[in-house]
Structure formats: C-alpha cells, structure tokens
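User: Structure please.
Assistant: Input sequence and predicted structure:
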Amino acid sequence: MKELRLLSISNTKLVDDDIIEIIQKSCPNIYYLDIGNCGNITDKSMEFIKDLKIQKLNLLKTQVISNLFSKLFKIIECFSNRLQTMDYLC
C-alpha cells in the first residue's frame, strides 16, 4: 500500500484515530485524504496526518474542532507549502 496516493474513507464510524495511525504507517505517499464525516477522528489524528505528504485534506464533520484557530494554524504550519486545499467545518 506504499504506492497509494488518494484515499477517501469518508462517512463511516469505523474510521478513528487508530485507523489514521495505520494509514500513516502503511501509506506514506498519500497526498489526498478524505476523512470527512468520520465522527471518531479527533485531534490525535493530526499527529499522524502531519507526517504524510498531504496536499488535500477533508476534515469536515470530524472532532478536530477544539481550539479552532490554534488548530488551524498548527495544521497549516505542519503542512507548510504542501497543503493546497483543506475543508474544515464545525
């Protein structure tokens, strides 16, 4: 799965922080990740996602919402120049 570049696993309750950790370890070349509407994704997942080569990230309707602005700045900082788009809705 190291060659996987795009992954959309949105709209499922089965996806949680542990799954994101597995993705981070198994699929280091992902640049598009859609985990929108995965209600079990929390801030913990950002520690795994930041190590990926993410350019497009969908976090719509996840639990990654506490301290909104500081989190957004942290996300932007983590992805530096790579991130092209990010969907984020509380």
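The mean pLDDT is 84.
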